Amino acid sequence: MDNANFDNDNKLTTETVVKPDQEFKKRPVQKQNEKESNHQENNNEQEGEGEGEGEDESEYEYEYEYVPSTALYIIGIGALIFTVGFLIFINLNYPMSKHLKQMFIGSLIDFKNQFFMKKVYIAAVGIFIVFQIFTTITQILIKYIQPDASNSTNKDLNDFAGSSVIGAFIIAGIIFPVGEELIFRKLLFGILNHFSTLLAFIVSSFVFAFYHFEFSIQKLKEEYIRFPIYLFAGLMFAYVYNDTGCILATMLGHILNNSYTVILSLLGVLQQ
Length: 272
Known about the structure:
By secondary structure, the protein is mainly alpha-helical. It has 11 helices and 2 strands. The longest helix has 29 residues.
């Protein structure tokens, strides 16, 4: 009887493991219960009484862990290789290497100086306020159009917040925003802006929006309804970066928004 129940619990564990195309999802992991030894000792006595009854779920505890996808490992390894390669290249004795090194050092100095600019913090707070107002209005419209829609604009943040408070703030609240701003604003917008500012706004914002789009058949309609939120965020970050010239402003604004979502998730305000 115990072996059958144990097999069912293991089946629950394996069936809920994330798919390769997912980033961070929960999976229940069976933990050794302190009462398990007593349960085994009294097994013979309980067999006759509880033969037709299901197993008491309180006999087992479950914890949640996040399993990074293969794609996440590839991106992480690729970023590490690129960073190491870049640092090696700029220290070589080539004219282009010296030029890139000067640009890199200049960017670091400029970034450091941004911490002492008042407009950076004003812009960051402005991003947070405007985005929350827009999101609230959009969520009301979404509930009207699709009442059964979840209350989160970024389900991954809500899922990840349930695993670890420290991990949620470090990964979802800081690392993701900083990385996204470097890629979509500093790199993509910055390159396209040399050719056309309008093109930079359109391309960087749409790429940012589709990056957050969840391509799932079950949630396709819901994601299309939420697409304006993702697009608005991309346009707003691009506008602030273009207007202030400070990537730190969009980083801090992005961090505020993500951290706020994580906090609400930890408090159980958002639907999981």
